[in-house]
Structure formats: structure tokens, C-alpha cells
User: Fold this.
Amino acid sequence: MSRTDTLRDLESEVGVLIRRVRRVIGERARLVHPDLQPASYLILTTIAQGEPVRASAISELFEVDKGAISRQVKHLVELELLTHEKDPADARATLLSVTDEARTRMADVTEHRQKQLGEKLADWSDDDLSSFVAQLSRYNRALNATDPQA
Assistant:
């Protein structure tokens, strides 16, 4: 098989992976809350990974219009998955935080998903799994280094 054929196969497999990831994000969103949209789930998980954050920082991170982020944040607050409070450094701004209920729901979803993944990859050796993770990481670093949009 030529390198061109291999690269074409790689793009095909990455396409399969992207479709699977989109489906999984939708499933996870619904498990956290039946009315949670996949894009809002990504915002929620991003906020959950760190300290309280301004909506403008989320807008920059996702490269999405501030108005769109504002609507999603409003919906997340209505679903009681996010809270907002005044930024002590700037009273005009607010900081977003994940609620305890959201953290609990997301942890349950993560635990369930990891169990499923473990079952599906049960016939993979620890070495195979570690090698795959290392190669995927290398792939992501290579694309990130050459094309920040990748």
C-alpha cells in the first residue's frame, strides 16, 4: 500500500472517529440532562475542568460568537447545571461555575462510559492500549503543530 493510500485510509478512519465522537457527545449530554444539547455539553465539560471562568473566555476558546455562548450559558443556568457570580476582580463581569449536581451527573456519565469502553476494548492488551494512546497523542500533536485548525 502506498503512503497516499495509507493517508487516505487514515482520513477515512478519522472520519469514522469524528462521527462516533459526535454521537457519544450527544449521548453523554442526554445522560447529564435530557434537555442538554451536545454543544452545551462541551461548554459544561470545559468549565468543569478548571476554575470559574468568564463567558468571553469560553467564546474565545471555542471561537464562537459571544451571543451564541451567552444563549448556551443561559440555558445551562436554567437547567441548573451552571451558576454565575460576580467576578471579584471586575464587578461588571460574571464567572461561570459548574453546579455540584452537574459535577455528580457528569462523573456518573464518565464512569459509565469508561466501563463501556473498557468492555469494548477488553481484548486489547495493556501494551496495545498504551501504544494506541501514545500514537493518537503523537498524531494530535503533529496536526496541532502544523495546523492550529486541525
